[in-house]
Amino acid sequence: xxxxxxxxxxxxxxxxxxxxxxxxxxxxxxxxxxxxxxxxxxxxxxxxxxxxxxxxxxxxxxxxxxxxxxxxxxxxxxxxxxxxxxxxxxxxxxxxxxxxxxxxxxxxxxxxxxxxxxxxxxxxxxxxxxxxxxxxxxxxxxxxxxxxxxxxxxxxxxxxxxxxxxxxxxxxxxxxxxxxxxxxxxxxxxxxxxxxxxxxxxxxxxxxxxxxxxxxxxxxxxxxxxxxxxxxxxxxxxxxxxxxxxxxxxxxxxxxxxxxxxxxxxxxxxxxxxxxxxxxxxxxxxxxxxxxxxxxxxxxxxxxxxxxxxxxxxxxxxxxxxxxxxxxxxxxxxxxxxxxxxxxxxxxxxxxxxxxxxxxxxxxxxxxxxxxxxxxxxxxxxxxxxxxxxxxxxxxxxxxxxxxxxxxxxxxxxxxxxxxxxxxxxxxxxxxxxxxxxxxxxxxxxxxxxxxxxxxxxxxxxxxxxxxxxxxxxxxxxxx
Length: 480
Hints:
The protein is of the alpha+beta class. It folds into 4 domains: 1-155, Beta Polymerase, domain 2 (2-Layer Sandwich); 157-242, Hydrophobic Seed Protein, CATH 1.10.110; 275-415, no CATH class; 427-475, no CATH class. It has helices spanning 3-17, 19-30, 40-47, 62-69, 120-125, 149-155, 164-170, 173-185, 191-199, 209-220, 226-235, 237-241, 261-278, 287-295, 300-303, 317-331, 336-348, 362-372, 376-385, 392-415, 427-434, 440-456, 461-475; strands spanning 35-38, 54-58, 75-77, 85-90, 93-99, 135-137, 142-144, 157-158, 188-189, 305-306, 312-313. The chain has a 7-stranded mixed β-sheet with strand order 3-4-5-2-1-6-7. Strands 8-9 form a two-stranded parallel ribbon. Strand 10 and strand 11 (312-313) form a beta hairpin. Helix 1 crosses helix 2 (19-30), helix 1 crosses helix 3 and helix 8 (173-185) runs antiparallel to helix 11 (226-235). The radius of gyration is 29 Å and the shape is elongated. The N and C termini lie far apart (88 Å). GO terms for molecular function: CCA tRNA nucleotidyltransferase activity; metal ion binding; nucleotide binding; tRNA binding.
């Protein structure tokens, strides 16, 4: 397909996707202004991808934009008006309309000195990548592509409208966006972009942790995060934003053969993503599972020990790794829930390997379920994904063993409420039976009964009472 036909098709597809764009363009034209669909909306239409939101740019200044859309949109907001952006919701779609920009940057922080431009060409020049620097003038249905974004799209190449050095100096976050687009779109960064990312990696330190985290999260939620992660590691950006990942690249010498932990972790991540869709699938990509898969072995470099005879061990790497994951995710300003869940999955990911050929008692199975709590489904996926051996017989044996563990969990769940394992007596019953008041002794008794419940399963009421009184007498607690 030649470029002319592709451009015509893009315009037709864009209009089909959103008649709202045509309707809005008429309002701007009546007001004497031009309106362009721009950026990701155009790119995604050319790729045949559905874009939920639409981005526009215009020669109208922000106060003028507000007047044009105020009686048209279902809701209008001006939170970004200082940066020239007015938001509109119409028929369930979110639209953003931004005045042409011709910003300048102090190249110390990231926030620009906002200045408005007068041409679409000037606006497109300041955008991050050529594939995002295409526009459609809606009144005339004209395709505008001054930097051959269509060619870059065809070749699946990420390049910048200006030089990469200028672009990244203006906004270093664009380097992370390059990695994110490599993951989301499967594009390859142009050699000059890779060179600039490598030489300017330190500039990312100008960006707040919250913005870095947002880009990393989007990268990890892509269908295939690996190309993006590899680009971060290759350019040294990974050393700045997620140093534990490149830190897993362990040298393998002729005397101490073992898996490359970095490559293994990328494979585990890919397999975890496959399991999202097949083994108890979720409706959305699972950031917690993906972070846990990527970071599950980050403790290995710090715990590596060479053994006599050429062996290598990583004792307690799950403990060290959980601590490292918690520290990094906290530095990246992830939520407490995500930090807690990911670090717990890292901590638990080795537990299954003590299962052997099914030697665990019912008590051990209960503890596995209880310690995982609401993370059990994710833990199932992580443990299964962690099998990367090329030995088919060994891989099949590991999966069969985990099948057996899941079957045992299901059997116990049918008999007991494993999801909410609690003592057979509550706090009020403990105080009444032992004749004690609220305080530390009640907590100790509750913990004893909880451990008893995990060891022996549900007890009859009289048996639980007898065990409590026996324990209390031994501890010198209460009237027993």
